[in-house]
Amino acid sequence: MPKVTFPHMGESWRAFKMLLNDLGNEVIVPEKPNKRTLDFGVRYSPEFACLPLKILMGSYMEACLNGAEIIVTSGGSGPCRAGLYGQVHKKILNAVGQDIDVIVFESPRAHPIDFLRNIKKLNPGRLSYLSVYDCVTRSWEKLKYLDRVEKLTHSLRPIELEKGNTSKIYQKVIKWLDDAHSLEEIKRAGKAALEELLLIPRDLGRNVVKIGIVGEIFVLLEPSCNLDVEETLGHLGVEVHRSIFLTDWTRDNSNRTTQETLTALEAAKPYLPTPIGGHGQETVGHTVLYANKGYDGVIQLAPFTCIPEIVAKTVLNGVSKIHNIPVLTFFLDEQTGKAGMVTRLEAFVDLVNRKRTNDNYDLKLGMAT
Amino acid sequence: MAYLGIDVGSVSTNLVVLGKNREIYAALYIRTQGKPLEAILSGLNEIYALIPDELEILGVGTTGSGRYLAGVMVGADVIKNEITAHAVAASLYVPDVQTIVEIGGQDSKIIIMRNAVVTDFAMNSVCAAGTGSFLDQQASRLGIPISEFGKIALSSTTPVRVAGRCTVFAESDMIHKQQMGHKLSDIVNGLCEALVRNYLNNVGKGKEILPPVVFQGGVAANAGIKAAFEKELDLPVIIPEYYNVMGAIGAAQLAREETDKTGLTGFKGFKITGLQYRTTSFDCSGCPNNCEIVEIYEEKKVIGRWGARCQKWDII
Fold first, then answer.
1. CA–CA distance from A255 to each of A248, A250, B101 (Å)?
2. Pick from A71, A133, A210, B35: CA 20 to 30 A from residue A90's CA?
3. In a domain, A135, yes or no
């Protein structure tokens, strides 16, 4: 059986593990990115590359040491260098003596034949297309529940009575999903997980601010890359809404673009009419949408040196003023010290709290004088 | 009746006892020197000697990068970030302040206020160019006391252009200018202007700087930097009397607001300076992160833990 690994993005590995396993591969589950991952990543990557390249580099290296032979990853569309990362990783890993192959899934809409060929490579059990379809359906269901459960934690964390309860229960219930295999089981486990989370004692009267999170997909989806910003904000009494979930992104790139993304791109148009790669346009668009929906603030997460996000950040200056919504940007790199981020987050939450209580206050006031 | 504010920063630890009518009973500025614990204890001792015996402390607040440490030691009523603390302090003295420039030892920040509310802020992110530590270092390299730095800058007649983008470039640029034979005062002044340029381009980028502008933090003592700000902004820059302890003043004021609401304080009293505090650390081997956990002990009891990336060690 071929030994297969893939990128670690939040909790999504639970679904991918099941899929690749069912297709007859031995899965080397990627480790949650940690200090060692970062050490490997920094050692084997070009210095100027962004954090996602380095983290993935380290992750793959760890998987190689655990015996992985094939890496499955996704490609990219538009002018962002992340689209090349699959090949870059392969070249580097081969150069340092790791005999490894990389299978890159591009958008099936744009490259259908390529897509089927890749599936074939990962189907050593020679399952029929119908069985493959069944496997994909089940793992897709699991992925959807993983996203739904995570979304629920975002709204529970700021109102939990006992700090840390949500995170604890969350860790418990996603294991249920992990153990579920048939479609029936997955649905049952998913529902049970949601119900269990809703049993957490809550303080419904609490004043909760709402903050939207925008930015580059990888640092958004992998908490160990963003210093657990969502959990930290939750504990500061903030309900976070993340603009990207893996299921939405997959839909955007497979069947048809989701309504949400279409609206975001539409909303970005007056400020950033052309695709600039990565999630630059989405970052701008979602910020506008969050403002329209009455969110109190937006946090942008970007890997250091990420061009699309740098462009978006500059555009956001104006968007923030015009739509009267505070925006805070974090550039993420190798730094693992959290103190600086916590200080800025606390101050930002203070700011949006005071802005909210001060009705007559208007960001645009400053411009008029 | 008064409130105690403690600001534990990278370079200095500041303590202030603030009265109900904004009067300052005592203010202390001591060097942290990498030992926040000792600095807090000796600061408490010193300030206790400075205030009247019968003065009652109604509340205590902490801020700065060591705010959690200080908070658990003294039993703080409020533990707040530096940005909020500085904003609160500046509006105590200049109620209609619209821009706050704060430059400390390791960080520099800009706080934009409108109608007495913080509407925007920025801190230096990946670069420490233009902070107090760099000025300290350059002053000692040039062989001039940091206290004279500003005066020397002001005596310059023809400022020399020094690169301000990065401290390493700034330093090599200054050495070059020295070798060329430029006057010391001109180079020092050039450095002040470079730092201000860097600050406005980096920290102050995209911010609308409106008067009144308040300049605080340790670097505000430097008349050369103040002059460079006034020249570059074409606005008068106000330096409050207690410019170097504004964070502590803000913390004290926040403690007042908090205890006005709750009616009681958690302050353990100045007697804690007689207790034994010590910190220990160990590596947690629960996962590959190998977090280095720091524990603080009061006598034999653990009163706080830091450094974990999960909640495993949160419960004391």
1. 11, 8, 51
2. A133
3. no
Q: How many CB atoms lie within 10 A of CB A183?
A: 13
Distance in angstroms (rounded) separating the CA atoms of residues B57 and B59: 6
Out of A32, A164, A350, closest to residue B311 by CB: A164
Q: Are residues A212 and A334 both part of a single domain?
A: yes
CA dist., res. A316 & res. A303, Å (int): 16
Report the SS3 class of residue B153. Answer: helix
The answer to whether B316 faces chain A, any CB pair under 8 Å, is no
Beta bridge partners of B16: B5, B27
Q: Is residue A75 part of a domain?
A: yes
| DSSP structural state of residue B159 | P
Q: Are A151 and A197 in contact (CB under 8 A)?
A: no
Residue of A171, A225, A317, A350 to mutate for B, most B C-beta atoms under 10 A: A350
Is A309 a member of any domain?
A: yes
Q: What is the pLDDT of residue B14?
A: 94
Q: Which residues of chain A have pLDDT under 70?
A: 77-78, 255-256, 358-369
Sheet of A327-332: strands edge to edge?
A238-242, A209-215, A297-303, A327-332
- DSSP secondary-structure letter at B100? E
Q: What tokens does A263 get?
A: 């609206």
Asked if A4 and A70 count as a contact pair (C-beta separation under 8 A), the reply is yes
| ipTM > 0.85 (yes/no) | no
Please state, in angstroms and as integers, the Cα–Cα distance from residue A294 to each residue in A67, A271, B142, B274, following that order.
49, 20, 54, 52
CA distance A314 to A307: 11
CA distance A266 to A282: 9
Which are the contacts of B169, defined by CB distance < 8 A and separation ≥ 6?
Answer: B163
3-state SS class at B109: strand
Per-residue pLDDT of chain B (316 residues), as tens digits, is 899 999 998 788 999 999 988 899 999 999 888 888 889 999 999 999 999 888 899 999 999 988 988 999 999 999 999 999 999 999 899 989 999 999 987 788 999 988 778 888 888 765 656 678 888 888 888 888 888 889 999 999 888 888 877 777 788 888 888 899 999 999 999 989 888 988 888 888 878 899 999 999 989 999 999 999 999 999 999 999 999 999 999 999 999 999 988 888 999 988 888 888 888 888 888 877 777 888 888 888 888 887 777 777 776 6
Residue A359's SS3 state is: coil
**Chain A residue with the nearest C-alpha to that of B313:** A164
Return the half-sphere exposure (C-beta side, CA atoms, 13 A cut-off) of residue A87: 7
Is residue A332 a contact partner of residue A302, using CB atoms and an 8 Å limit?
yes
| Final residue belonging to a domain, choices A94, A127, A160 | A127
Residue ranges and CATH numbers for the domains of chain B are 2-88+247-274 (3.30.420.40), 95-239 (3.30.420.40), 277-306 (no CATH)
Domain containing residue A73: 3-127
A to B CB pairs, distance under 8 Å: 81
Q: Looking at residue B206, what is its pLDDT?
A: 77
